[in-house]
Amino acid sequence: RFSDNVNIMTLACPGLMEYIEDGITEGKELEDFLEKLFSDVRGIKFDSVVLGCTHYPHIKETIKKVLGDNIMVFDGGEGTAKETKRRLEASGIINKSKENGIVKITCSSKEKNIEELSLKLLKS
After folding, report:
1. Are 80 and 93 in contact (CB under 8 A)?
2. Per-residue pLDDT tens digits for 88-101
3. Where are the alpha helices (DSSP H) in 1-124?
4. Residue 122: φ, ψ to 5°
5. Mean pLDDT to the nearest integer, 52-74
6. Among 60, 6, 16, which Cα is nearest to 36's?
7. Residue 87 DSSP code
8. Average pLDDT over residues 48-69
9. What is the C-alpha separation between 120 and 18, in angstroms, rounded?
10. Could you give the CA distance from residue 98 to residue 52 in angstroms, rounded to a whole number?
11. CA–CA distance from 48 to each of 15, 20, 71, 100 (Å)?
């Protein structure tokens, strides 16, 4: 339950996904973009940000850098992974092997760099 004085606000982030899909997950260019993006809410007191897109966890550290250490950043990825594991276990189809598996990326895109980008993002 939220206290009575909680405000929830959404912030559209046009163009942010494109940075990530172009492989830009850190650096001055992205930081400048985020500074401009968050400039509209700088005067508003807030203490946390919820990452609302599957792309955004890849820039979580850059978001923290831009907003400062006092802002909590919530990433739903861990919860999604736990729920996926729970469902696989409940269905009896989880792989119980202790050996590492292999990641194979298959994509219908004709872009040549998509495999490299996918591997980079998986490692971040």
Report:
1. no
2. 999 999 988 899 88
3. 16-21, 28-38, 60-67, 77-91, 114-123
4. -65, -30
5. 91
6. 16
7. H
8. 91
9. 15
10. 33
11. 21, 21, 5, 35
